Amino acid sequence: QVQLVESGGGLVQAGGSLRLSCTASGRISNYVLAWFRQAPGKEQQFVVEISWSGGNTRYADSVKGRFTISRDNAKSTMYLQMNSLKPEDTAVYYCAAKFFTSPEYTDWGQGTQVTVSS
């Protein structure tokens, strides 16, 4: 089990960029990591995940070509570079982790707010 802390959220104009970070309390080299988001009044939405090695990624169609996930296992940190932001990207963004053999995400951060103004 790991504890996760997100940072980097904020207010940005449409078309702008933000980089989110998610730092874990322990080693994450055996963990699959992901970003999810939840907008007001909407269900939680998968955004992107990255394999334990960083060699494989999977993106939601809504963010493909605009968002890039990466990780630095030596720093126990994951990043989400968000470019060409749209108002519909406004949400609380959560990082999540699961052991690579686990079917479900078991560890969650507290979330960071991203607001994109039009």
Task: Name the descriptors.
about 50% strand, seven-stranded mixed sheet, four-stranded antiparallel sheet, globular, 11 strands, single chain, mainly beta, about 120 residues
Explain what the structure shows.
The chain has 118 residues and is mainly β. Helices cover 0% and strands 52% of the residues. It has strands spanning 4-7, 10-13, 18-24, 31-38, 45-50, 57-59, 67-72, 77-82, 91-99, 107-108, 112-117. The mean pLDDT is 96. The relative contact order is 0.32. It is globular, with a radius of gyration of 13 Å. Strands 2, 4, 5, 6, 9, 10 and 11 form a 7-stranded mixed sheet that branches. Strands 1-3-8-7 form a 4-stranded antiparallel sheet, with no helix packed on it.
Write the topology of this structure:
Layout: E1 4-7, E2 10-13, E3 18-24, E4 31-38, E5 45-50, E6 57-59, E7 67-72, E8 77-82, E9 91-99, E10 107-108, E11 112-117
Q: Brief description of this entry?
A:
By secondary structure, the protein is mainly beta. The chain is 0% helix and 52% strand. It is built from no helices and 11 strands.
Helical amount:
under 10%
| % residues in beta strands | over 45%
Number of strands: 11
Q: Write down the Rg.
A: 13 Å
pLDDT averaged over residues:
96
Output the structural class. mainly beta
